Structures are given as C-alpha cells and as structure tokens.
Amino acid sequence: MASGSDIGSARAARMALGLWLRRVGRQTLRFEGGALRLEKQIRDYSGGGLALFWKRQGIYAGAAFLTSCYYSWQISVMCYLFIQFAETFENTLALRIRAWKGGSLREARYYRNMLLVSSILSSVTICVFISLVARMEGVGNHFMPLFFLFSAGLFAAINNHQIPQILFLRLAMYVVIFLYIPIKDLWVVWPPLSSVLWLQLFTCLFVLYFVVECAIIYLGLYRSGLDQLDELRRERDRVQAAYEVKSQFVSVVSHELRTPLTSINGALGLLRTGAYANDPEKARTILEVAHKNSMRLSALINDLLDLQKLEAGQMSYAFEQVDLAGLIGDSLEGIAGFAETYGVTLHFTPPKAEALVSADHARIQQVMDNLLSNAVKFSHRGGRVDVSVDTGLGGVAVHVRDYGTGIPEGSREKVFGKFTQVDSSDRRAHGGTGLGLAIAQEIMQAHGGSIDYASRPGEGTTFTIQFPPS
Length: 470
Ligand code: ADP
What we know:
Layout: H1 6-27, H2 33-51, H3 53-70, H4 73-99, H5 105-137, H6 143-159, H7 164-189, H8 196-272, H9 280-311, E1 319-323, H10 324-341, E2 345-349, E3 356-360, H11 361-377, E4 384-392, E5 395-402, H12 412-416, H13 436-446, E6 450-456, E7 460-467
Parallel strand pairs: 2-4
Antiparallel strand pairs: 1-3, 4-5, 5-7, 6-7
Helix pairs in contact: 1-8, 1-9, 2-4, 2-5, 3-4, 4-5, 5-6, 5-7, 6-7, 6-8, 7-8, 8-9, 10-11, 11-13
The site of adenosine-5'-diphosphate has 20 residues, from α11 and α13.
C-alpha cells in the first residue's frame, strides 16, 4: 500500500528505473556490428588503396625502368601493362566502394570478394615479374628481385592489414616466391653449406620472419582499433535504448499519476466548497471516487516497488502448498465489483481433481488479479470471462479467457514488456502501467512455470499460466 513515505516510493521508483535501464542496455541490444565492421574494413582498405595510388605508380615505374635498363625491356613492358590492368580493376572497384551507400552484409561480402580477386591479380603479376627476372639472372645473386619482393611484402604488411584474407593471400604468394628463388638455385647446384647460396636462403628466411611479424603487428593494431570502435557503438546504442525506455517510463508514469491525481483533487475540491455538507450521500459518492483513485495510485507504486525488487533479484518467495481453486475463488471475489462496473460476468469451472501447487500464495494471487482485471478491462460491455483449471501429469494450468478486443499479432513484446502497452496512445480506452504482465512473467518464472496467451483480434484472448508438476 502507499502507506510508506512518498519520498521512499519516489526513490524506489528511481532505483527501479535505473536497474531496468541498465538491464535493457545489456539484454535488448544485440550487436549488429558484423556488417558495419566489414563495411569499415572494406572502406579503409579501398580508401587507403586510392590514397596510395601515386606511390604505387612511382614504385611500378621505377621497377619497370630498372628492369628495362638491366634485364629486358620486353618483360618490363609486359609486366607493367599487366600491373596497370590490375590497378585499373582495383581503382574502379575502390571508386565504386566510395560511392556505395553501405548497410548490407551481402554487398559488403561481394565487395570484399572483388577486392580479393583484384589483389590476386596484382600479386600474381608481381610474383610472375620477380620470377622472370630471377630466371634471367640464372643461378647466383638475386639481389634485385628479392629486394623488390621484400618491399612488396612490407608494403602489403603495412597497407593491406584491414582485410586479413587479402593480407594472408598476398603474403602467402610472396613467401612462396621468396623461398622458391633461393631453393631453386640450391636444387640446381647443391652446394656445400659454406656457399653464399645457402646464406641467401637463410637471409630470405630472416627477412620473411620480419615481414610476417610486421604484418601481425599492423593487423593487431587495426583490430584493436576496430574493437574500440565497436565498443563505442555498443555504448551509444545502450544510451539510446536507455533514453527510449526513460521516455516511455516518464510518459506512462506521468499519465498514470496525473489521471487519478486530477480526479482526487477534483473530489477534494468539491468537498472543500461545502456544497455537499447537507447531502452526505453525494459526498460519499465523491469520496468513493477519490478513494478508488488513491487505490490506483498505490497500485502504481506497488508495481514499481515490485519491479525494483525483481530487477535487484530481491523478490523473496514463501513457497507453500497452495490450492489453486481456493486462490482463484478469492481473486474472483475481489474482482467482482470491478467486473460489475464493466458489466462483465465472471465464470469459474473448478478443477475435477485437487489443484495443489507449490507456490507463494500472495504472488500467485497477484498474477491472477492481474489476468482477471485485464480480461475484464479488455472485454466488451455485457461480456464474460471464463476461468478454468487443468490438472494433469504435465502440471497444473490456469486459463483466463475473455471475448473482448483481443491482441493483434506481433504484439508479444509489448504485452510482456515493461512500461509497454499494445495501445500506448494518450487516447487509449484503459489505463495501466504496462507492468502487470511483465511482473507476472517474472513471478511465474520464479515458480519454474510460464505464462502465455493465445488471441484473435476482435474475438478475445486466453491467458494461461502453467505450473510445473510437483
Ligand atoms: P497494463 O494492463 O497495466 O497496461 P499489463 O502488463 O497487465 O499492463 O498489460 C500489458 C498490455 O497487454 C495491456 O496494456 C494490453 O494492451 C495488453 N493486454 C493484456 N491483457 C489483455 C487482454 N486480456 N486482452 C487484450 N489485451 C490485453
């Protein structure tokens, strides 16, 4: 009851809100970052590629120039043309990605795969170029092709880390050629261990270790940057969701506070004027209205306190053997007056066998009261509400059936959500906080049971609470 101090209740309501907001943040926000993350990787990769366009052109021109001066202009021209083809492919793709609006995981995967193809094109060209030069050199020192390969590997490690698949593929190709060149010489000559050909292989291995290490470091740095970004995004979503719940809370609570308060104020104002001093019957009716509304206020505060206890895991249950038939009878008696005001009749079909369950009497009564008052509230005038109990091996089930407005499909989250109602407009016909069923669900779960409903809009709803077999 609202007999505790108002300040205490307000603090409890605030605590309930706080706990609820935090939990919503944790539970309801599923991270949709998979697509976003890949999109960012693709944009970073292709954006970086575009930015390095002239640098790459300089490298290709330098390599082509040196090759034509010292080896073969034919090979130089052929490889230069191939690499320009690969470049055109990659840059066209990068421009398409820049214009891409994003948002779809399918498109993101498509672009990632196309980038992979483009990267295969350019790395195959580089590998063919290096192998041709090494072949022309014959057995011996491969300073120039190996150094070019080292530069290409380092360039990939520093600039291709955004998409690991591309980085690994490129490095794998370079590693194969890196080892192929000195191993081929050793295979042909098979020199003693003191030969510089062996030294060449060992140096290649040393350099390879360095390139791979460098790639791993860049990859790690980029990944931790992405993780931080994801965390920020999650935090932003949590704040947004919390803000929405807060708005819902404020709107529901203010509506539910304002309506009864206005009515109580009105009733007290009328009595204060003394206009009904000689009409005790009329004064009684007005007091009844004020009393009904103060009960409504206290119900709201009780709901908030329950919510707080549930969220804090502080709801305690006193389990005992409860006879559901008796409990339902009490609930029906309690709700009879309310049903009368709605012109609704209540019908109870008692169970054939004794319906004994292990439960907290007061809490299950609270669930039943909520189901019955909802059934009455959402019935049409002159309607009826049927209550029945099923006992069986699967446990005990209680059904509360009404023939009222029904619940539209797809409203489950609103029905069992906190501070949510199927009709949340200001013009809705029935008051309520949207907390009753959320609390009922938690209570049933604590009993190892469940609560569910089946409904047809316009034809009515059946709510069922199920207890596990004892
Ligand atoms: P409240 O009744 O205080 O709004 P509840 O959690 O008890 O909160 O119910 C949540 C919502 O579920 C209600 O606002 C209503 O939209 C819907 N609802 C519950 N029971 C029924 C019913 N028997 N028929 C139609 N709608 C219902």
